[in-house]
Amino acid sequence: MDVSYEATKREISTDQGVIRYHEAGEQHDDVLLLLHGSGPGVNGWRNYRGNLEFFARTHHTYIVEFPGFGVSDPVEGHPVLTAGASVIRFMDALSMPSAAMVGNSMGGVVGINLAIKHPERVEKLVTIGGVGPNLFSSSPSEGIRLLQEFTDAPDRDKLLRWLNSMVYDPSVVTDELIEERWAAANDPAAQQTAAMMYGSKAFAMMQQFMATSDTPPYWAMMHKVTCPTLLTWGRDDRVSPPDMSLAPMRLIPNAELHIFPRCGHWVMIEAKDAFEATVGAFLQR
């Protein structure tokens, strides 16, 4: 199976621009969507390129590129909301009634929101960190504070500090990874998205909105998630500390939690083999 970048890249037009994606495992009937996280230089391919071949052995697997991260066409609106809407547009464009979903960090929040608002579209859900409120740990966390510092005034040293906060093992942060993320983080669309999500001004506005709004946060509605859900977490996650997992584990009726030792925020990368075995068994169950 050829799961290289060129062999798997695709694109499809929607009424709000082109959505780009990667596709493998076309011979399978079971469908799996891989939803990426956020942060400097992120996209779906960089999050999941190491996992695509594994999941394509059993599922017709798609890596979806969200608008505003320098790959798919950008759209107006907050990135988390536009990401969820883009998943529905993507599924409709491919006549895909429902799918299992794996979401990393922000992608997990996108998946949770879809499972709340469009339960018929989400068959199973796997989240990788990032879901739920900080119960005991400080908010913003160390990793989010470093992300804010980079977003407000980007430079390579700040990028390196943030990347190191994402992992347990610093050897994961290679020179190649630093160069790749630095180049991608300079994309104007990606910078605009980052400012909307993680700039200190945007964060302050969001805190004020949450303090005064009558709209409950998404995590207060997690009891509405009806699909089987697997929460995965790195025990040493400094971006989304593991105490965040307690609320979704309790509130989602059919949720289970797996915590990986010696692992940071990028569970699918840093604990690749154990993550794939765990998720693969959950999806096949």
UniProtKB/TrEMBL annotation:
The keyword Ion transport does not apply. SUPFAM superfamilies: alpha/beta-Hydrolases. InterPro entries: AB_hydrolase_1, AB_hydrolase_fold, AB_hydrolase_sf. Keywords: Hydrolase. Gene3D superfamilies: alpha/beta hydrolase. Residues 31-271 form the AB hydrolase-1 domain. Coiled coil: none annotated. The keyword Hydrolase applies. GO terms for molecular function: hydrolase activity. It holds the Pfam family Abhydrolase_1. This is Alpha/beta fold hydrolase. It comes from Gordonia hydrophobica.
